[in-house]
User: What shape does this take?
Amino acid sequence: MVDPESRAGPPARPADDPLAGTAYRFLRRVAAGAMGEIVEAEHVGLRRKVIVKLVHRSYAALPGYVDRFRLEAQSLAMLAPRTPHVVAVLDCGETRDGRPFLVLEHLGGHTLEKEIRARRVLPLVEAAGIASQLLEALRFAHDAGIVHRDVKPENIFLAEAEGRERQVKLLDFGIAKVLPGAAGEDAPAPLAAPTEEGMTLGTPRYLSPEQARGATLDHRTDLYSAGAVLYAMLAGRDPFAHVAGIAAILRAQALDLPRPPSVVAAQEIPAALDRVVMKALAKRPEDRYASAAEFAAALDRALAPPAARWAETERMDIKAFQGAGPGRRAMRLQDKTEPLNVAVFRGALRPPPRAPARAVPILPPPVAPAASVEASPWQQTPPRTSVGHATQGAARRSRTMIVSLVALLVAASLLVVLLAVVWRR
Ligand SMILES: Nc1ncnc2c1ncn2[C@@H]1O[C@H](COP(=O)(O)OP(=O)(O)O)[C@@H](O)[C@H]1O
Ligand SMILES: [Mg+2]
Assistant: This one.
């Protein structure tokens, strides 16, 4: 009898194909994970390449592990249709020898980890673009009550497809957590035996302080990790790259304040961007951005071109005038939405620059640290308080004319009095 698989057309399976008995055929191993392997495979019937995430035989027998795998599959199934920035899951099943597997869309490209390793630093706008797409994926996950808990460059894929711009895809919801009260009918059911908070999961270099301490987590743990990923893209190294050893890294994540990216990066980083990264890396979750959307908006603002930032000066409050001279002003400004953004404006008052008719420059000039700012674009006087050069000049001219007229009148009166005295004599 002829083997039905050899008659179907596709090449025969290797005798030790781990996917034998499924609709898929093993092609090659892509990566070996801690709990399984990632293989490139082909759907035998459709002849379509896919990625299969396959659990190790030993883990398949562990109580609770299959449930965790189910949670990963269901999280992806719910999120991928909502955002293009989460990898799509196509199928799930179990091999003949009882190993659970997930079938994922086959992505071309490579991970952000590989990209950073190859290029050292990414330019500001590119790094911010990747971070924004990552934050979009997190926004959808958090809205659905899912915390990823393992956001790091190895789990962020830069997907390339012909005729399309590179797209960020968040991978690996393998240790995700469903928060109590997650919304929606299609929300994955929480684990039957949830991971204890005291158990530290994830990679130490991108762990949040609360993860490092084994404390209770919410979605803000992912915002910290996203901040650390942004730091790594800007600086070419993670915030605690100078610390070695798991225990020392965990300690640093929990207690030490990293140096701002501008101090360690081999590229110039504006103070506004430094502030965004450092806020995301705050030790206390309540000092970070409250949501992925808020983080993304702050990132946008920090890199907005000068003209756009000028247009936004309405968001700065004048806290105090610190002195004035002829045509010069000094004042303290405070950001209305980010009260920590305090700046001092010192300089000549100028009318606001006109927004260019066409595209504005993509990269803003670096903004100097807040306390020593000399007329950086968004720290200029808000339009409501500015006085233009032209107006000042006209006022000065009319003042001079009035003074000259009065002097002329006084001189004429003196002359009349003098003539009257002479006449009397
Ligand atoms: N859909 C995919 N397309 C291409 N490569 C992928 C895909 N999913 C995962 N990979 C590769 O496999 C690696 C491990 O995948 P991941 O889901 O993170 O598994 P693990 O839980 O073992 O970390 C990724 O870093 C990436 O290089
Ligand atoms: Mg992974």
In short: Residues 389-424 form the longest helix (36 residues). The chain has 13 helices and 13 strands. The two ends are 151 Å apart (CA to CA).
